[in-house]
Amino acid sequence: MNSSYKRYKRTRNYKPLLPKTNLDNNVITNFSDTQAVVKVKKRSKNGCTNCKKLKIKCNEDKPECEYCIQTGKECIYQVKESKNSSQKANRKQPDNTPTVVENQITSIDNKPLKRLNSISFQLNISKFELQLLKLYVDFGGNFLSVKGVDMIASQFWREEIPKLWSCSDLIKYALYSVTSARLLANYDYDESQEIYIENEDQKSNLLVPYTINLTKQTLRYTKETLELIEMYQLMIDDEALNADETKDILGQILVAKKLCAFSNILLPRPKQNVGLTRLKDSSLVNHMLVANNFIQIFDKYGPMVKNTKFSKVFAPAFIPLKEYIEIYQNMEIFLINHLENYISEKVDASDLLQFTYQTALSKLENACHQTLYFTYTIFLCRSMSYMSIDIDYINLIKKEDHIAMKILFYACCLSAIFHHQSFHWDGVYNEFLEFYVSHSRENFDGEWEDDVDKNIYGWVKARSKYNHRFELSAIEHVGEPVEYFLN
Question: By CB neighbour count within 10 A (0-12 exposed, 13-18 middle, 19+ buried), where does 476 fall?
Fold first, then answer.
């Protein structure tokens, strides 16, 4: 623990609020790297009863202060009546008192009036951020859960997250991050660098439109989210919150981690990655490390959010045991069988690597079964996250171990072939595919190691070049010549 944090811990004599950034109370008029102006808050003795009771500083926002909003408590202010208030109230104004009518009737087209009545102004956010919220409501529930299968999770992502958005900076910026990344996923990498969105200056009395770079803004939202996650974890480790507050923050951390992971996947990548010389520097390895970190955090904090609104959100989708035995236990998937035989031939049964390889392969096989059972191709993408549970496997990938890469190559190919909802073909997986193609040619005299490698990449090219959409049932046959399935 560094010295600055120790000083903070010793001198703090108040109950800390949930972390708030200056982005919340002060509207940004320029989305460049320039710091937003921070309001200077004066101390006062007119705080709400909750803040007075806890002897913490109240920001005196009405009808609810910052602390009460974030803790869900009823915010009550004591009203001090002046001594002569009742006497003044009883005084009757003479009938002949002239009524002064200010001649300031504002036109309905007046821009300041429109601004005061706008939703974005009332919420203290820009029009761009309001559009991001609306877009999330449209796609978030189905994108982050298994549509038509886990209705509880789907409802949570669709309805609860927008509610949390209004009272949590962490959820707010995580939501902005994944939604702006979703917008970028509609463009190629080169185009995405020049996408500008019209915004509005909320501080001005006049509507002042200007543009922001969507790519830079997405990265900024992600950075803000990760910084807030770190702040939240410090508060938890410091044991500065009560049990209920801790559970709520832990749930928010898990949600934000997942949103950031999806944001990372959606961001466009260059088509040609000439500069990638080491696999450990790839986007996919970074994604696997992020996934592993999320899994560790979930293992650590997951049990603490039991019986909360977050408890069922991250529950995995299981195939009922009876149906699994009847349908999938003896299913022959061509590429899975090929990899099993390949590993058995190349690795001694007593070698510990045999277990690492087979475990990764079992994750891929399970993803195939889930895809077929739920008819939902997101499981093929998740297979890489499932493999990330084993840090030893990630380390093998970073070291460019050939067998580990071969398994991952097959997983990326399956995702590229079937997952038409991945929104962007040139995403995080394409970088690895190109790397593996070059790796194979360098190590096998310009050819593929075997016909199955060649065939499965043929499926990928057919999906990309001809935009041919294969039926999910074809998963069982991937690795056979693609020409048989193009009719």
Answer: middle
Q: Which of 7-16, 244-253, 358-367, 384-393 has the lowest mean pLDDT?
A: 7-16
Mean pLDDT throughout 103-128?
48
Written as six digits, the tokens of 145 are 């859960």
DSSP 110: -
Specify whether the CB–CB gap between 434 and 284 falls below 8 A. no
Would you say 435 and 406 are in contact if contact means Cβ atoms under 8 Å apart? no
Contact between residue 165 and residue 67 where contact means Cβ atoms under 8 Å apart: no
Could you give the dihedral angle defined by the CA atoms of residues 279, 281, 285 and 291, in that order, rounded to the nearest 10 degrees?
170
**Tens of pLDDT, residues 199-223:** 655 454 445 555 778 888 899 999 9
pTM metric for this prediction = 0.66
> How many other C-beta atoms are found inside a 10 Å radius of the C-beta of residue 36?
16
DSSP letter assigned to residue 196: E
**Cα distance between residue 125 and residue 484, in whole Å:** 54
Compute the Cα dihedral for 172, 177, 181, 183 and give only its sign.
positive
CA distances from 3 to 129, 230, 233 (A): 37, 17, 18
The secondary structure of 305-360 as a DSSP string is GTTSTTTTTTPPP---HHHIIIIITT---HHHHHHHHHHHHHS-TTSHHHHHHHHH
Tokens of 342: 């390949």
Tell me which residue has tokens 């919340």: 24
123 three-class SS:
coil
Whole-angstrom distance, CA of residue 101 vs CA of residue 94: 17
Phi first, then psi: give them for residue 174, nearest 5 degrees. -65, -40
Domain boundaries in the chain?
Answer: 114-307, 321-484
